[in-house]
Amino acid sequence: MLKIGDFSKLSRISIRMLRHYDDIGLLVPNEVDSFTGYRYYLESQLPRAGQIQALKGMGFGLAMIGKILDKYDDPQELEHFLLLKMEELEEESREARRRMQVIDSTIRWLRKDGNMSGYEVTLKTMPKRYVASLRDVIPSYDCEGTLWQRMNDEIRSQNVRPAVPCYGLAIFHDEGFKESDVDVEVQSAVEGTYEDTEHVRFKTVEEVQIASATYKGGYDQLTKVNRAVADWVSENGYDYDGASFCIYHVSPYNAKTPDDLVTEVCYPVKKKEKR
């Protein structure tokens, strides 16, 4: 048998961690001296120690490692755990890339001027228009593309003619920001008249006065753009008057990279009533 120090050297697991593994039942010594408390291991336990180290290296937590070790000799079960971990790591990688884009955008913004002056806010009127509209609750804001796809699929058979400009936009109907289950409506101005489909409604939208700012690049700029619009609304004596929306002048479908996106952030407004 091996003393804990010798087993630690051979397994490349610290004595502290071996004691912890014993406490949680992950790697239990073959024998513990009842008088001294010394832990002794068998050479045959080294493969299990190696499996633990390998799974830790893949990013599995100790609780999950315990479950995997029970199925380690079943190739199909082991593959199932590994595929799930692969999906988790891919999602973490996507999130890391998104955060890196935010950091990169912030650095470029700071190097440019370090203030909000890069976003010019204007007051204008969106004209009355006839639109194709689809509104639904979607899991999150980044699922908006599914609405556009559904709308395009449902109206394709009617050979709908887009207006010029088409004012392709998304309206966010929730009262505030939501992490999930968001109420979003997509609209596109069209020429002619058409029959409603299962989910798409053709309707006339009245003109609306908006305060808006147009920016180029990824959605990581939205917070700064919203702040610029909010400052303008406050400084110029206006109140918000309806759901905010974004007009896509260069949409994700036409942009080759996030830097090619051109989005106009719009807030319906009205002049404050004098008291």
Note poorly predicted spans: none
Question: What is the string of SSEs from the N terminus onward?
Answer: EHHEEHHHEEHEEEEEHEEE
Mean pLDDT over the full residue set: 89
Q: How would you sum up the global shape?
A: elongated
Structural class: alpha+beta
Distance between the termini: 88 Å
Oligomeric composition of the shown chains = single chain
**What's the total count of β strands?**
13
Percent in helix: 25-40%
DSSP helical segment count: 7
Biggest pleated sheet = 10 strands, antiparallel
Describe the structure.
- It is a single chain.
- The strands form two sheets. Strands 4, 5, 6, 7, 8, 9, 10, 11, 12 and 13 form a ten-stranded antiparallel β-sheet that branches.
- The termini are far apart.
- By secondary structure, this protein is of the alpha+beta class.
- It has seven helices and 13 strands.
- The mean pLDDT is 89.
- 37% of the residues lie in helices and 26% in strands.
- Strand 2 and strand 3 form a beta hairpin.
